[in-house]
Amino acid sequence: MSSRKILSLLLVLMLVGAMVTGCGGEEPAEAPEEPAETEETAEASEEPAEEPEEEIDIDIVVGFGAGGSNDLTARYMAEHMREFGINANVVNMPGGMSTEAAYYVSNQSTDANMFFWGHTGPLLFEPAAGDRGYTIDDFEPIATLASPTFVIGNRQGAPWETLDELIEYIQDNPNDVTFGGQGEGNVRHYIVEQILPPDELDYVFVGLEGGADVALNLTGGHVDVGHLSLAAAVPLHQDGDMTVMVNTQPLTERDELMPEVPNVSEYGIEEGRERHPIALWAVKGTDQELKDRLSNAIREIAEMPELQESFKDMGVVAHYLDADETWDFYMDVNDTMVPDYIEWVEQLD
Fold first, then answer.
1. What is the phi-psi region of residue 98: left when phi exceeds 0, alpha when psi lies from -120 to 50, beta otherwise?
2. Alpha-carbon gap, residue 163 to 266, rounded angstroms
3. φ, ψ at 123 (rounded to 5°)
4. Which of 18, 160, 205, 349 has the fewest beta carbons closer than 10 A?
5. How buried is residue 25: exposed, middle or buried, by Cβ count under 10 Å (0-12/13-18/19+)?
6. Distance CA 230, CA 244 (A)
7. What is the rounded radius of gyration, in angstroms, for the C-alpha atoms of the chain?
8. Which residues contact 167 (CB under 8 A, 6 or more apart)?
9. Long-range contacts for 259-263 (Cβ within 8 Å, ≥24 apart)?
């Protein structure tokens, strides 16, 4: 073949190649390979979504009647427990400064799902004063949630307004003042006598059944002065049916709800501050998983702004302690306060 024919053939082949390229003749890029399904990814894809915890029903026994700090704090807590699948029924069982309720719960089986909403009074001071049929060792703590504020107030129209004026009036008018307390011979009576020592002041002490009963007797004019929770006192104070003179809150000086009301410590009466935080207690031997579930729920409830606001409105401090912290707190009270209380009780006899 001549050189001219070879050159022409090469030109034709080059032209054809260019046309093929211009018409999209490039080979397409290979698609990336799908990753091979490993044993781990297969298990992950088959794992079901976490199911919500099964709903449970429990009873919370309150040893006082409706309307006081024990009752209201339990009901606010129970309301929020529903968000955690816990249907809590609050049962009021007043009697014996809450000892009847504690005794009743202590005799329930561990699978009864019945819990006691109580404080240091029925769990430490009452059993120390005498046989109540149970001790704190019959219970196990779940968690602490509330520290209520207690106050001393006087009836409408009383001829005194402050604690100093009350003391002066009692000194000038022996046995003329009647004091309504929450029971007699108990820790709250003990606190009253730390504030108004009967060996120095002559007045009549009457033991009543809880803060709601004290409130009724104050408004009815049956007692002149009363010791009750701030929860029970607030509406009466606001309506002018009584005047709050002093508070006994151990965690703060002035309560946000009534910043004008002084703390007993401002009168130099440190022993008049009441260490009665309220906790949920289970019968000894209750299932640990259930106790943990309740404690975890209470921990989250304590942080809820709605609950904190509700507590603040009735003079209660939302204060969470887990089971171990609750037990340690109660044991500290047992070691530091109960011995003096026992001595006081023996002097009453």
1. left
2. 11
3. -95, -25
4. 349
5. exposed
6. 9
7. 35
8. 196, 201
9. 261/151, 262/163
d(CA 96, CA 102): 10
Q: Which of 105-114, 131-140, 197-206, 231-240 has the least mean pLDDT?
A: 231-240
Domains of the chain listed by start with CATH number: 56-148+275-348 (3.40.190.150), 150-272 (3.40.190.10)
Cα–Cα distance for residue pair 88/58, rounded to 1 Å: 5
Q: pTM (2 decimals)?
A: 0.73
For residue 86, the number of C-alpha atoms closer than 13 Å in the C-beta half-sphere is 25
Give the other-Cβ count within 10 Å of 256's Cβ.
Answer: 11
Structure tokens at 85: 């699948």
The tens digit of pLDDT for each residue in 9-64 reads 444 444 434 443 444 444 444 545 555 555 555 454 455 555 667 999 999 999 98
User: Look-up: residue for tokens 């014996």?
Assistant: 96
Q: Give 106-125 pLDDT, tens digit per residue.
A: 999 999 999 999 999 999 99
pLDDT score of 80: 98
